[in-house]
Amino acid sequence: MILVTGGAGFIGGNFVLDWLSNPNAEGIVNLDKLTYAGNLATLDPLKANSHYVFIHGDIGDKELVTKLLKEHQPRAIVNFAAESHVDRSIHGPAEFVQTNIMGTFNLLECAREYWGGLDAAAKKAFRFHHVSTDEVYGSLSATDPAFTETNPYEPNSPYSASKAASDHLVRAWFHTYGFPVVTTNCSNNYGPYHFPEKLIPLVILNALNGKPLPIYGDGQQVRDWLYVGDHCAAIREVLEKGKLGETYNIGGWNEKANIDVVKTICCILDELKPRADGKTYAEQITFVQDRPGHDRRYAIDASKLERELGWRPTETFDTGIRKTIQWYLDNPAWIEGVVSGSYRDWLQKQYN
Ligand code: NAD
Ligand code: TYD
Fold first, then answer.
1. Under CATH, domain 2-190+226-253+294-315 is a member of which superfamily?
2. Is 113 a catalytic residue?
3. Residue 340: its pLDDT value, please?
């Protein structure tokens, strides 16, 4: 068994489905609190899978985590569980401190105690893989080189500050206790099962529903985009072959300005599902007030991962975004399930 936390969310859900699509893979115990971002419908295909166990709970619950480690004896933990949306962290940072910092602290402590009680072989094989973000490195100017693993941490949002804090805890548990960790810092993901509060799924759904496509500020902020399946493959590589105590950047070599991402989505939708009035979806683009403290540019140098572990992304932005849009067109039932009252409340709060 491996223990995955946050496996009902976007990346965790894709990871669990990918992992268990290999019939020879170890089983998965998935611990998820099922916040607004957790969605069991993503994991429907696993209902009858005897290699999969779901546990509804909080990574910050010491008693629960201790009990499930004892019961399932995982040989690794992959920690996806987090509050993950920058805009929500601006409205309400407390949950971010609670889950991302205190939750990771609790998970580390419970895991360290469990690991300390393993026999020598199991102890040697054990891994704690912490999933983090490129946002911990702060913001780049247009001409700065991309982030490498040695960039100083300069987080700017409550979200990135809480992730940076969790990364520091993970690092310290390796240096102080010899606890076997690896950390990965990844750029912006996109793909199937993405909750429609983030730019790409929000724009796809708003376009199809005839709503405005909100671009913050001048739309010239740059992100590096990675297809979620490529992120999952990179995590599997690092979990398998990563050097203990190391951090690895994961990125798509796909830097794009937000306005260009949105225009690309509009063009593909014009082709796959033209508007009834024959006009382009780009007419729905609306510039709105900028995000406070909005980071201008993120860019990831993922060459360490390629050099040391041989990983490279397989999708370009053009192939990945087309697959993603097609997935949203083909899966109205999943979308219906996540667009609940609380989602509508969020849209009202954020976009008025
Ligand atoms: P998400 O918000 O879609 O999912 C998070 C999941 O964690 C949800 O299922 C939620 O129910 C669960 N969760 C939240 N608090 C919990 C708690 N206290 N205990 C147990 N479960 C809890 O997030 P995501 O986009 O899938 O991101 C997963 C991880 O990857 C996060 O750690 C995030 O920081 C990191 N990351 C995300 C991106 C991205 O572009 N989405 C990029 C780089 C890194
Ligand atoms: P997002 O998907 O929230 O990811 P992150 O903030 O973690 O990078 O946003 C991606 C970019 O798109 C970011 O620069 C903010 C911008 N954005 C908009 O312009 N409009 C929106 O409605 C959203 C949600 C994001």
1. NAD(P)-binding Rossmann-like Domain (3.40.50.720)
2. no
3. 86
**261: buried, middle or exposed (CB in 10 Å: 19+, 13-18, 0-12)?**
buried
Q: 336 CB contacts (<8 Å, ≥6 apart)? A: none
132 has which bridge partners? 185
**Gyration radius of the chain over CA positions:** 20
Question: Which is nearest to 45 in space by CA: 16, 5, 74, 25?
Answer: 16
Task: Catalytic residue, from 114, 137, 159, 281: name it.
Answer: 159
Parallel, antiparallel, or unpaired: how do β-strands 213-216 and 285-288 relate?
A: parallel
135 included as an active-site residue:
yes
Ligand 2 binding pocket includes 33 (Cβ within 6 Å): no
Return the exposure string of 38-69: e unless at least 16 CB atoms fall within 10 Å of the residue's CB, then b. bbbebbeebeeeeebbbbebbbbbeebbbebb
Which residues of the chain carry a pLDDT beneath 70? none
Question: From start to end of 243-311, where are the E strands?
Answer: 247-250, 255-257, 285-288
Q: What pLDDT is attached to residue 352? A: 81
Residue 12 CA to ligand 1 centre (angstroms): 7
How do the domains of the chain map onto residue ranges? 2-190+226-253+294-315
5 lines ligand 1 (CB under 6 A): yes
- Ligand 1 centre to CA of 231 (Å) is 13
What does each C-alpha distance from 227 to 84, 200, 267, 312 come to in angstroms?
Answer: 17, 12, 19, 12
Ligand nearest to the CA of 97: 1
Q: Which atom of ligand 1 is nearest to the CA of 58?
A: 19
pLDDT confidence of residue 31 = 98
Spot the catalytic one: 58, 83, 134, 224.
Answer: 134
- Please say if 159 is a catalytic residue: yes
